[in-house]
Amino acid sequence: MNHNIRLDYPDERESLYSLDEINNELSIIGTKACVLDLNDVSEELIQLLNKQTLSKNEKDKIMDHFLLPIDKLLNIIDDAGRKPHVEGGGELSTTVTTFGYSYPQFYLAEKGVDYSRFDNLHINISNDGTGVDEVLQFVSGKEFVMHQYLPDKKVLKVHFSCADEYTGWIITYNGKNPHIGSLTSASIGTKLIVQVIGPKEWEMKYI
Ligand SMILES: [Fe+2]
User: Fold this and answer.
1) Cα of 70 to ligand 1 centre, how many Å?
2) The predicted structure's pLDDT at residue 13
3) What is the Å distance from ligand 1's center to 43 Cα?
4) For residue 108, how far is its CA from the centre of ligand 1 (angstroms)?
5) How far is the CA of 58 from the centre of ligand 1 (A)?
6) What is the pLDDT of residues 40-61, one digit of tens each?
7) Which domains are assigned to the chain?
8) pTM above 0.90, yes or no
9) 20 to 30 Å CA-CA from 207: which of 127, 165, 174, 197?
10) What pLDDT, in 10s, does the model give residues 62-73?
11) Ligand 1 centre from 204 Cα, in Å?
């Protein structure tokens, strides 16, 4: 069977394959996944989403299309049962001082690149301890794996794949809760648009 979402427990419990059951499990930490319908996307853009490599200009075209305005981001965060860390959502463009780059970011899984640097549980917080809110759009590819830490210290792994070229995922979580967004198993050409909002500057801290 070909499942496009699967939640694995760290113990003997059976994996979940139903989006509702998975969201119910994740709701305790304010994480939520929804199907992203790409049927309204232009055919030109769909062709770009199907490519394994992209020029800077092509990446910009994809970003321009998918970047969400603050009101949409706030709706998504609210729908996941969270209040944003910064009232009103905070800054739309933020910098991770640990690495010196800014969000929003476009991630494209490329051949021969080691993405294991993402594979450590971490939290994203500012100097004064304010968290960030993260919204990811997974618009092409297979096997993006999100790890989410629960209050009981267990880590759930949720595997996502795009069912076809017109179906993606939109995922939100609290960046102050330990997590991983892993591209290590992702198919070449996997594409994610990641928006991290809140304090202007924040640090990524491994736990
Ligand atoms: Fe992160």
Assistant:
1) 19
2) 97
3) 31
4) 16
5) 25
6) 999 999 999 999 999 999 999 9
7) 5-206 (2.60.120.10)
8) yes
9) 197
10) 999 999 999 999
11) 7
Encode pLDDT of 167-201 as tens digits: 999 999 999 999 999 999 999 999 999 999 999 99
CA of 132 to the centre of ligand 1 (A): 9
Given pLDDT bands bounded at 50, 70 and 90, which one contains residue 1? Answer: low
- 51-53-58 Cα angle (round to 5): 80
Strand pairing of 94-96 and 167-174? unpaired
Matching residue, tokens 């991770």: 96
Ligand 1 centroid distance, CA of 9 (Å): 20
- The pLDDT confidence band at residue 2, using thresholds 50, 70 and 90, is low
